[in-house]
Amino acid sequence: MSQLQYLTSFSLTELQDRLQAMGEPAYRARQVFQGVYQRGLSDFAAFTDLPRPLKEKLAGEFIINPLELEQMASSADGTIKYLFRLTDGYFVETVLIPSGERKTACLSTQVGCRFRCAFCASGLNGFKRNLTAGEIVSQVLALKFTFGHNLTNLVFMGMGEPLDNLENLLKAIRILNDERGLNFGARRMTVSTAGVIPGIKKLKDFELQINLSISIHSALDRQRSRLMPINKKYPLAELVEAAEDYIRSGGRQLTLEYILIRDLNDSLYESEGLAAIARRLRAKVNLIAYSPVPQLPYRRPEEAGVARFGRWLEERKVKVTFRQSRGVDIAAACGQLAGKFQ
User: Fold this and answer.
1) Are 123 and 52 in a shared domain?
2) Is residue 272 annotated as a catalytic residue, yes or no?
3) Catalytic site includes residue 93
4) Domain count for the chain
5) Using one digit for the tens of pLDDT, what is the confidence trace for 268-308?
6) 20 and 120 within one domain
7) Selected catalytic residue, list 106, 113, 120, 334
């Protein structure tokens, strides 16, 4: 028997083509699609509107849910972290971040990460592989249907660099956005990147108006290269130019993510450089206090230090939002996701 394929990697059109090749009418694909994305079914036996021979045929071709819950951890602040085992034995983490009526899912796009930002846990175990579109989509289905969370926003900010897995990322976004399925609004989805310029250039031509966040973490080239080795390949000046071109192509607002690390990138000089970039890009800055990773030497700033850095930016006419670090006590905050060490 051939290896089962992930049904959640198929768009509705692809599923129709596949079922027609199996001798089934196109409307059967719509029934399957609606069953998975609107009713949350994860077992073909549960499809009451499909004939038994077709259910058996589908079960021999596809697996609906490729994720198996390995562990779940709840934070004192309401954040929940899910550790999922993939079918090949690797692990990824997905985080639910509740805030009032807003429920955000932080999704992973890779097992590990090849870019090895100095302050981030995701690359400590090296890069293993890209997630398929189906594995990305299935994280949303698990939170929505298995665990009953009425999600309002999706952020691709978990393990991995989303634009390093661009093809699967964009396919997953299209599937999540399909009005015949989950119908998740494009403007409620945000992609974060460490600065993969070819991906930003391709993203500007993407048909859906998703949000883009760019991780800066230092406005000084030498310092940024130390924190983010990707800066050696895609220097800050070229990244800012690509971001400017992205804005011109569609008028979408950018967010600059800035993790503030005590005594490293929290100086007045850094704030001046960051403010200059933000003003040029007409971008807001999302200021995040560093969340400690046991294996790394960096220190979290005091609240007064975060407020001071934010005030310096505001004095330089930059819009600043302060992101509260959620789930620090369960290692679910920004930069803390590592999956599970093999």
Assistant:
1) no
2) no
3) yes
4) 2
5) 999 999 999 999 999 999 999 999 888 899 999 999 999 99
6) no
7) 334
